[in-house]
UniProtKB/TrEMBL annotation:
TM spans (from-to): 12-44, 65-88, 304-329, 349-376, 401-422
Subcellular localization, as worded in the UniProt entry: Cell membrane
Protein name per the record: ABC transport system permease protein
Major localization listed first in the record, in broad terms: membrane
Species assigned in the record: Pseudoxanthomonas japonensis
Domain MacB-like periplasmic core: 70-276
Topology relative to the membrane: Multi-pass membrane protein
Keywords: Cell membrane, Membrane, Transmembrane, Transmembrane helix
Residues of the ABC3 transporter permease C-terminal domain: 308-428
Length: 436
């Protein structure tokens, strides 16, 4: 009994390890396995016998479709939930990664991880503007924008409950530094006036942000004069003049400075000049690196949660597959015994049951991936970003995620079909034939 228990434990551990390896296999390795399997099925005697035996089982699926659908629906649920969870992280990460570029830099206080805990004094801005590598505008002035981020509460469009929004104060140079930001409605804000332009994502997320509307922020009235689109994280923000925002909220320092550099080489020059100036104890990152780092924590959390939830659901799907396939093997005991009696060895019988289970798993994986793509791809949501404000983004169901979901489906089918297949191969022929 101890040996049997130990053997079962080793088999389970081997299956778990094998399933983990299967999940992380690259596409070309999976393709190689599939090609090798196809060659074995069509070029060897055992393979051809397995194929013929599998055809018999597959032909009987319509007669037991109710039981077989348990496998398909269970695996479809696992794949759908897993892909949807990972698509959320993929969408959030993609939104932040496409914010900024290699030729723009963000300056923060030394050691600061985000704008919220950064402070840059006003007298440091002129020093920054004189550093090497800073691009100049048509007027010959340095293209840099000292900025301030204020968190404000706005009612959400869906429920009316208050949520955090990022109210950013920028200088006139911000438009030239971020050429991807384009006005779609109205006009730019005027300097020294309480006027706001809002991102198209923020307009859809919050109430009262139509052009011409008036908001009360910081106990003062602000007028929405325009809507802009940027296709990145700035779509979730409200913009106004930096000095007006500083005055309204009594902010005497800036939080960051965004700089247009003279290409990638200019960024390297700018960073080196910053490090060489003892008056500036500041950190410099490309805006792409900065926003990419902001997405890392949440994306990792979503991946871990998605994997944990997917694993829990996968265990349930495996048990469903085990029950269904055990019942199928028991119902086809005489048929399997007859095949064994006329010359089918154990390996073709095992492969026949496995091929049948893998086919059902493939159908479940395709169904789950299709549902995830139809329902969630492009679905807009908002979540808290690193600045404790809502970032509007879209779920992104990529081919890589669909491929990963399909591998999970086939892995579940592999585990769920293996033990019933081994039982089918071990059925006593004489005992099964007596029941005929």
């Amino acid at each position: 009994m101890k040996k049997q228990w130990l053997g079962n434990l080793i088999s389970i551990v081997a299956l778990v390890v094998g399933l983990g390896v299967w999940i992380v296999l690259p596409w070309f390795a999976v393709l190689g396995i599939a090609v090798a399997l196809m060659l074995w099925l069509f070029l060897t005697r055992s393979g051809r016998l397995s194929l013929e035996a599998a055809k018999i089982g597959i032909a009987s699926l319509p007669q037991r479709w109710g039981a077989s659908s348990v496998i398909v629906v269970g695996i479809a649920g696992v794949v759908g939930v897993l892909v949807a969870m990972l698509a959320m992280g993929e969408g959030f990460s993609a939104t932040l990664k496409q914010t900024g570029g290699e030729d723009t830099a963000i300056v923060l206080r030394g050691g600061s991880q985000a704008e919220t805990n950064s402070v840059i004094s006003r007298d440091q801005v002129p020093l920054i503007s004189t550093l090497a590598g800073v691009a100049k505008g048509k007027d010959g002035r340095a293209l840099l924008s000292p900025e301030l981020s204020q968190i404000v509460n706005l009612p959400t469009a869906s429920t009316g409950e208050d949520a955090n929004a990022q109210f950013r104060g920028v200088s006139e140079a911000a438009w030239a530094i971020r050429p991807q930001v384009k006005l779609t409605e109205g006009r730019k804000f005027n300097v020294g006036v309480r006027e706001i332009v809002v991102g198209q994502g923020a307009k859809g997320q919050y109430r009262g942000l139509d052009v011409g509307k008036t908001l009360k922020l910081g106990n003062q009235e602000w007028t929405v004069v325009g809507v802009f689109a940027s296709g990145d994280a700035h779509d979730s923000e409200l913009w106004t003049d930096i000095d007006t925002l500083s005055s309204a909220y009594d902010r005497r320092a800036y939080q960051s400075v965004t700089v247009r550099t003279e290409g990638k080489a200019g960024f390297d020059q700018f960073k080196q000049a910053m490090e060489n100036d003892p008056r500036l104890k500041l950190d410099v990152l490309t805006t792409r690196d900065y926003y990419t780092k902001q997405s890392t924590g949440l994306n990792t959390l979503i991946k871990v949660l998605g994997t944990v939830i997917g694993t829990i659901m996968a265990i349930g799907a495996v048990f469903g597959a085990l029950n269904t396939m055990y019942a199928a093997v028991a119902g086809r005991a005489r048929e399997i015994a007859t095949m064994r009696a006329i010359g089918f060895r154990g390996l073709p019988v095992v492969m026949a049951v496995m091929l049948e289970t893998m086919l059902l798993a493939l159908l479940g994986g395709l169904l789950g991936g299709l549902i995830a793509w139809v329902v969630f791809n492009g679905y807009s949501v908002a979540t808290l970003g690193s600045n404790f404000s809502q970032v509007v983004f879209q779920f992104k169901v990529t081919p890589e995620l669909l491929w990963s979901g399909l591998k999970w489906a086939l892995g579940i089918g592999l585990v769920g079909g293996l033990f019933p297949a081994l039982r089918a191969a071990r059925l006593p022929i004489t005992q099964a034939l007596r029941a005929i």
